[in-house]
Amino acid sequence: MRFRTVTSPHVLLETSVGLIMRRVLYAMLPGIVALIWFFGWGIGVNLVLATVVALLAEAAMLVMRSKPLASHLGDTSAVVTAWLLAVALPPLAPWWLTVIGVLSAIVVAKHLYGGLGYNPFNPAMVGYVVLLISFPREMSTWLIPHGLGQPHTLTLLETLQAIFGTAPISLDALTGATPLDVLRTQLGLGLSVTEIRNSPVFGIVAGHGWEWATLGFLAGGLWLVYIRAAAWQIPVGMLSGLAVIATGFYLVDPQHYAPPWLHLWSGAAVYGAFFIATDPVTASATPRGRLIYGAGIGMLVYIIRGFGGYPDGVAFAVLLMNIAAPTIDLYTQPRVFGARQR
Amino acid sequence: MSAWFPFHGGVKTVRHKTESSQRPIQPGLLPSRLVVPLHQHVGATAKPMVQPGDRVLKGQMIGQADGYVSAAVHAPTSGRIMAVDQQPVPHPSGLPDWCVTLETDGEDHWIERKPLDYRRLHPSDLRNAIRNAGVVGLGGAVFPSAVKMNLSGHCERLDHLILNGAECEPWMSCDDLIMRERAAEIVAGIHIMVHVLNPHQVLIGIEDDKPEAIAAMNAACAGTGYQVCPVPTRYPSGGAKQLTKLLTNKEAPVNGRSTDIGVQCFNVATAYTLHRAVNHGEPVISRIVTVTGQVAHPQNIDALLGTAFADLIAQCGGYSDGVERLIMGGPMMGFALHRDDVPVTKATNCILAASARELTLEQPVMPCIRCGDCVDVCPADLLPQQLYWYARAKEFDKARDHHLFSCIECGCCSYVCPSHIPLVQYYRYAKNEIWAREKEKQQAELARQRHRARMERLEREKQEREAKLRQKAPPSRAELVVVPGTGISERNG
């Protein structure tokens, strides 16, 4: 009798890349529900559009690179990239904006750099930054969240018409600045933080509507950390980095620098900490390195928000730290079993 | 002792030990033919002492230990030697090795057995006796025990003597059963180790999923001062380094030995064979083998060395359905054999006939996504994914700098890898490449030295010849005749 010879171990944990990716998708659901509640159907339309374009682009690239379609398309990593990007796009972003963003992410940032596991930069953030730099006007046109007195709630049909360029009504009355935008422009006009924060746009903590989405992403993110689908060191590092530097500036001059809780709870800080920065392919891979990597992102976010040209800086901060990750890994190797205590 | 010191990483695996641990140890049936490999231990192959046609008795030495790191091999029963040649053996390479084939006569007639009084023997004489009795580590590594019972040069006296009864591999239960049934004899073996090694403390580590074994060992150790220490059930707690850390909080140094930190570790079954060898004069001719998985009656068998795997499978009622792989050892570190006509050796702790139910069938390998799950479970605190990249890129120097040789090949990283990358295989490959290159370098160095020595010798001979010629008055050319084809000159006339 002859038997197959295969190398050990002969039992494996029931896990797969696809399982990890699907768990990321599940974890995004609470945040997505909150966003749809406050910003309407547009978020959902963007998600569907981005998913379809991502899967088509992924399949085309896999065929061109002669990779097995079933296992590589089935890992749902393209869907994760699509969702991570779509959630960050304005709810009424024109369709071509989503398409260009997804194609930049999947074709350029992912496959032209070698495909899953080889890309040095976070694909979703590459797509986002391409759009932010190329189409700043479209990228900053956000809807006024539900409950802030917008004159009209868009139906699904109107949303589709707006996204695909046949809007029957003017959208100008429905759009407004995001809380971080308001903070940035009004600080530039010489107003104090206290005066700015009186605007209803800021809600309870850090932005009406936005803060609920943040709560949703926090819940999903904590679950990801709990099931070990995301490394805890990265969100802890990033949020502490942001909190420490924000607290420092706030203590020095509370009228010119926003309080740390506003920074932590607004914009893409929590979303970025749990969903963007934790992309394992582009992050640091050592336990200590992940803390440093996260802290670096947190500090860069503050610097870009406070002193840079954009209201939020998560995408730029992540990309900047992506390229630092290999070096961080080199200098943060763990102490090997039996090596002298350092 | 209740306190233990966790090691980093490890995994919770399936257990599946009760399949084979419900029945007592069964004696192995006497087959008509035994094929006894001469290389059943780490170190030099034993030198054959018999020829085809010789009659041998049970326990008679048939292979002599060759050097310090080696062990003797004995006839497992009485009979006639059929052949001394290369036969298939259980080895991952599938290559044959030197074996003595014995036709059994069914009489099982023992050679004269001489118990030794180890308290009166000089330690070096005792070590020779242990080597000649073929005692090696039975946990699977089969390192000659005599070598481990010599501390000279490493430390004066052991702090801890550790007995390894952890048995963390799934499916395996041979150590569990030997502790349940032969605890007193294990303790008698420990007495001999204590006499030679003189440790401050004796710790017996057993995973806490073996309450019967813990109870039996506790009872046998009563009054001896030896401590039975239950340790949490977490693979690979049975690794010598991990068990040492668990029990003593000490880590064997990188590139060092456990004796550098005053620790020596033996398997419990080794202690049992040591007792039989010294106190009864019986060399190692059998061992307990767990036969489990897809066989009709999984159980532990006290099998004669040289018994074919197929014979043990038959004794267990034959294969059940759908056996895909035949694994020697556990599913985490054992290797798959392609045939079952190979003999039981001292390293054969478990035979697992595995179908798709017992093992994970091969999955498509995906690219590494650097998730770091392997880092979290590595008990050697390595960066497995980094080692993988280096091995793949053939950057062996970098792999070595990232402590490739601290890898114990436990398989935890492959076990948790979501991309199903055969990581351990990459580490074995890298290690082998590095060893091969080192060997090549050594050979090149040797060749260089030989060449230099030869050139020096030729130069010296030339100078000596010239000196000689100068000393003697050179004969005129006309008087010399060259003998054709030899280059020798003879004086003419």
Automatic annotation (TrEMBL), chain A:
What are its cofactors?
A: FMN
Q: Supply the InterPro entries for this chain.
A: NqrB/RnfD, RnfD_bac
Positions carrying FMN phosphoryl threonine are T178
Report the coiled-coil segments. Answer: none
Report keywords, A-Z.
Answer: Cell inner membrane, Cell membrane, Electron transport, Flavoprotein, FMN, Membrane, Phosphoprotein, Translocase, Transmembrane, Transmembrane helix, Transport
Membrane disposition: Multi-pass membrane protein
Can you tell me where the transmembrane regions are? 24-57, 69-89, 209-227, 234-252, 258-278, 290-308, 314-332
An example Gene Ontology CC term for this record:
plasma membrane
User: Which Pfam family, any one of them, does this sequence belong to?
Assistant: NQR2_RnfD_RnfE
Location of this chain's protein in the cell: Cell inner membrane
Q: What is its EC number?
A: 7.-.-.-
Q: Name one GO biological process term.
A: transmembrane transport
Q: In which family does this protein belong, per the annotation?
A: Belongs to the NqrB/RnfD family.
Q: Kindly state the subunit structure of this protein.
A: The complex is composed of six subunits: RnfA, RnfB, RnfC, RnfD, RnfE and RnfG.
PANTHER family to which the protein is assigned, alphabetical: ELECTRON TRANSPORT COMPLEX PROTEIN RNFD (PTHR30578), ION-TRANSLOCATING OXIDOREDUCTASE COMPLEX SUBUNIT D (PTHR30578:SF0)
Function (record text): Part of a membrane-bound complex that couples electron transfer with translocation of ions across the membrane.
Q: What name is this protein filed under?
A: Ion-translocating oxidoreductase complex subunit D
UniProtKB/TrEMBL annotation, chain B:
Q: Does the keyword Cell membrane apply?
A: yes
Alphabetically, which GO biological process terms does the record hold?
electron transport chain
Bound how, and how many: what does the cofactor note say? Binds 2 [4Fe-4S] clusters per subunit.
Locate the residues binding [4Fe-4S] cluster 1.
C368, C371, C374, C417
Q: Which UniProt keywords apply?
A: 4Fe-4S, Cell inner membrane, Cell membrane, Electron transport, Iron, Iron-sulfur, Membrane, Metal-binding, Repeat, Translocase, Transport
- Co-factor(s): [4Fe-4S] cluster
**Renumbered residue ranges of the record's region Disordered:** 447-478
Task: Give GO cellular component annotations, separated by semicolons.
Answer: plasma membrane
EC number(s) per UniProt? 7.-.-.-
Bias-annotated ranges (Basic and acidic residues): 455-469
- Family to which the UniProt record says this protein belongs: Belongs to the 4Fe4S bacterial-type ferredoxin family. RnfC subfamily.
Question: Its biological function?
Answer: Part of a membrane-bound complex that couples electron transfer with translocation of ions across the membrane.
**Protein name per Swiss-Prot or TrEMBL:** Ion-translocating oxidoreductase complex subunit C
Q: Which organism is it from?
A: Candidatus Contendobacter odensis Run_B_J11
